[in-house]
Amino acid sequence: MAGWQMKQFLRALPPVRAGGDLWRLRNSDSSVAQTIAVVEEISNIPNVRLYSYKELRKATENFRSENKLGQGGFGSVYKGRLGNGTLAAIKVLSMDSSQGTREFLAEINVISVINHDNLVKLHGCCVEGQHRILVYPYLENSSLDKMLFGRGHRNIQFNWQTRCKICIGVAQGLAFLHEEVQPHVIHRDIKASNILLDKDLNPKISDFGLARLLPANLTHVSTRVAGTVGYLAPEFAIRGQATRRTDIYSFGVLLLEIVCGRYNINRRLPAEEPYLLEMVWEHHEKGQLLELVDISLRQDFVTEQACRYLKIGLLCTQDMPKLRPSMATVVKMLTGEIDISDQTISRPGMLSEFMLRKDVLCKKGESTAEDSGKPIDSTSSSRHMDTSYATITFDSIFDRSN
C-alpha cells in the first residue's frame, strides 16, 4: 500500500485507548486489527485501488436513494461519480451480510486478475471500520433481465441480432472462466439479472463473490446450495455438488429465456406451463420449437438459428451432467462452427421433478443440500419466479472428470 493510503486509512480508524504504534493498535481492538489485516492483504493485490469511505459517500451523494441501482442478497448498489469524473457502480455490502471478510477478500483476489471483454472489471474497494464496498464500472443498460423482460429502456431495439450477440458473449465469458483461468472458476449463479449490458449491449457477467481457491485434485465442490431456483442443476440442488457442468445447465436455461423472451418460471401461466424448460422439451419432442420464439420479435429472426439455439439450451440442461457440452463447445455451436443437426438430446433435468425428489427425501427424513441455503433478496432474477439461496457466489475448481 502506498504511504499516503495507509495514512489516510489510519486517520479513519477509531481512537486507540492506549498506545499509538501499529503493534498496540493491532492488539487494542480486534475489529480494528482485522481491518488492518484486510487492508494490508488488499495492498498486495495488483490493480486494486483503495477508496476512502468519504470518497464513495461523496460519489453517491451520501448514498441517496435516487442513486440506488438495485439491491441483492449481499447489499445495495449505487450509481456514483468518482473524483476523476468516472461513473461507477458502487456495491455496499450490508453489515449483516453473510459475505464475510474471507469471502470479500476472495472476491477481490479473483476479480483483480480476470480480464475478459465479457466479465465485469473491478475498479477498487473500500475497507474502513465495518464498511465493505466494491467499486465497479457503471454500465449504461443495466441488467439483461430488465431489458429482456420488459422493465428496461423500451427505446432500445432488442432484436434477434442483439440476442445472438448476448448469448455468444456470455458463453465466451463462461468458457474463459471454465477453461482458461487457472484454477478453473465456476460462477454458480448465472442468470439474467447477473448479466450486465454496456452502452453497445455487450454482455458482462457480474457478481463474483464468495470465491474459494481449492486444491487442484478436486473433481467437484461440495458446498451449500447457492443460486436461484429454475437455474439450478438438479445434481447441485439435491447433493450440493458443483462443477463446471452446473454452470452449463444455468447457461442453458438463460439461453432459452433469451430466445423465448420469458422467465424460466412464471406462476401466472396455466398450471401445465409455468416452467419454460419443460415447455421447450415438450415442443422439441413434437417438432414445434419455433412456436416458442419470443413473439415480440414479430417473426424477424433467423429460423434455423433460433431452432438451433433452443436445441443448444436443451443440450446444456440434460439431466446427466456428463452429456452436457463444455462451454468452449457451446460457443462453437452458437456460432455455427459445430453442426448439431445430428446431436441426440436426452431429457433435461426438470425443476418439477427436482421438487418431487426433494419432497420424497424430506418424507424419508433425509436432508438435501438446499436445506442449508439462505434466502436471497426479492430483487433477484425475477418477479414471477420462486427464488432461493444466496447469490453472488462462485468457486474455483480443477475438475479432472469434466
From TrEMBL:
GO CC, alphabetical: membrane
Record localization: Membrane
Residues that bind ATP: 91
Membrane topology: Single-pass membrane protein
UniProt keyword list: ATP-binding, Glycoprotein, Kinase, Membrane, Nucleotide-binding, Phosphoprotein, Receptor, Repeat, Serine/threonine-protein kinase, Signal, Transferase, Transmembrane, Transmembrane helix
The keyword Calcium is assigned to this record: no
Keyword Chaperone: no
Start and end residues of each Protein kinase domain: 63-345
Primary localization class, coarse: membrane
Gene3D superfamilies: Phosphorylase Kinase, domain 1 (3.30.200.20), Transferase(Phosphotransferase) domain 1 (1.10.510.10)
InterPro entries: CR_Ser/Thr_kinase (IPR052059), Kinase-like_dom_sf (IPR011009), Prot_kinase_dom (IPR000719), Protein_kinase_ATP_BS (IPR017441), Ser-Thr/Tyr_kinase_cat_dom (IPR001245), Ser/Thr_kinase_AS (IPR008271)
PROSITE patterns from the UniProt entry: PROTEIN_KINASE_ATP (PS00107), PROTEIN_KINASE_DOM (PS50011), PROTEIN_KINASE_ST (PS00108)
GO molecular function, one term: protein serine/threonine kinase activity
Entries under PANTHER family matching the protein: CYSTEINE-RICH RECEPTOR-LIKE PROTEIN KINASE 3
Family listed: Belongs to the protein kinase superfamily.
Designated name of the protein: Protein kinase domain-containing protein
Highest classification ranks of the organism: Eukaryota, Viridiplantae, Streptophyta, Embryophyta, Tracheophyta
